[in-house]
Amino acid sequence: MAYLRFCLMTLAALLLAGPALAQAPGDGPHVRMELVPETATPAPGSEVMLAFVSTPEPTWHAYWRNPGDAGIPPKASWTLPGGVTASAIRYPVPERLVIAGLMNYVYEHPFATLVTLKLSAGLAPGTDLPVTVDLAYLVCTDKICVPEKASLTTMLKVGDGAVTAERRAQFDGYRAKLPRPLGSQATYQVAGGAFRLGVPYPAGAAASEVYFYPITDGAVDYAAPQAVARDGDRLVIETRAKGAPGTIEGVLAVGKDRGLALTAVPGTVAPAAQGSGAAAGGESLWSTALIAFAGAVLGGLILNIMPCVFPILSLKALSLAKANEEGGNPRGEALAYTAGVVLVCLALGGLLLGLRAGGATLGWAFQLQDPRVILFLLLLVTAIALNLAGLFEMLAPSAINRLAGRGTGGAFVTGALAAFIATPCTGPFMGAALGAALILPWPAALAIFGGLGLGIALPFLLLGFVPALRRMLPRPGAWMETFRHILSVPMFLTALALAWVLGRQSGVDGMALGLAAALLLGFGLWWGGARQAKGRSAWIALPFLLVALAAVAVVRPATATVGAKVALAGAEPFSEARLAELTAQGRPVFAYFTADWCLTCKVNEKAVIETEATAKALADGKVAVLVGDWTDGDATLGRFIEKHNRAGVPLYLWYKPGQPAPQVLPQILTQSTLGDLAAGR
Fold this sequence. Notes:
Residues 1-22 form the signal peptide. Keywords: Cell membrane, Cytochrome c-type biogenesis, Membrane, Redox-active center, Signal, Transmembrane, Transmembrane helix. Its main location: membrane. Helices cover 43% and strands 22% of the residues. With 681 residues, it is α+β, with helices and mostly antiparallel strands.
């Protein structure tokens, strides 16, 4: 089918764009290729990796192993010496290119495909190994396609297998872009013309720009958009079906130059739960963004009944009613309040997206992971609560007072304050909306954060622009002072919750420091309020305020303590040097290799490896534990894993003293398996 599509496309190009073909820039090759060995002196019985280092000219592209709707994959014809065999070509994660409604899986930028040569153990050192490969491949622009050929040669000599550090780093970079084996079975379902793929994938593992590249032809409509949703410990990809060809192979992209090779079998795949964070492509991306935006607005609206926001909204509503009776500017105040809320939400959202782009794994309210921010919020909420209780009146420079007196300035500051102290709160619809924002393109993500701010400001915005709603508010009177005191109660409760969070983050010492700072602040505000009541200056409170704020710079996270569940407290990062050192000491070693995206790995770790029973068995047996984290596709770990005839994780190895070769354990572990090995049984 792919070849037929290519013939039809080439025929159309020749008929419609013949002059353009004659004017193609240069005579080629339009994708320059070079055959590079990782070592020129491979050892007998070893493997050596070759790279087709390819550089497309600007506007030209080459094709992946499945070219998509158009094109043909490259073909290699090898001429090899005796005792040498070549593997299939391995491809990095491709790019997508849509031309005239056809989806193409291509490479528009420099890339490298890899082949492994296996040498017979009987080859004598010093034997020359001439390697020749003839490549036939297609290169295209958005207007024309040109078949190209290349005959590449390299000379190897049987030797010691030494690899220079520079060449090793070069090939490690190539290997890092290859899809890594998922290690779990995926399932797909075809029903009603729809294709739904379920992929086991831990809920906490990072994933962005998710897309399924099918290797098996005829399974899906390549040009149809793909909707991707996270649903617990799985990813669900939905698109338009083309057929049901049995077992399907493919690559799941989970980030830039990061992919997982998977195999999917027919079965039943439940749809993602409603409200799961989703990231879609094409038209579905914008529908996802609109749904997330609506969820953010609704979630922000619900936040107004939370203890940390409701008192502020209520006070502003009452002040708006008072301003309405006195001929104020309710619409201006409403717009200023909304501007303050939305700008703070956009600033926090933009900062979050920037930190995530820099590699940090953060979510909404990320700033609350820092006890210094929690202590600052504790002092701020305490001051607001004491103000509502009538202990003092807010102190502000005359310029701010004048600004607030005109209405809009005070409303803007109040809106910014409401948005900032709303971050410790959460509510329905917010989780899915903000989760979607973290995997959507940044313009859509910022729109969702703005929608959250709009939802928080919506009640006050409606009061400002709908006179009938303002007329429904009670008339100002003496009762407002009592109501203000009542509103201090939820603010005190919020302060109590923040003190608890501070204790969780910084321990008993941190909580004591926070309470002492709040007490000192309260004393200063009480003293200042007492002087206010007598008509005197209240600036005596300023030194207490500054000393209380100084505690923010002092508080620190609590030192991590080792609990009973930290089953492998003595575990060390894996390295072959450390493994050799431990085995030389005669110690038993348990080495396991895992990845954040490997669901089987996580199940084994939570159910077996990180349990108290396993921890005690390993400790009693004086077993050393080495952990290899392959989440980022570390090339050194990858080579070690391949040495044990495994393409990916999980991999569990047990090194028994006196035995040079490790025992490869099953991929599904049990506590009794590790307990028996630790006991020498």
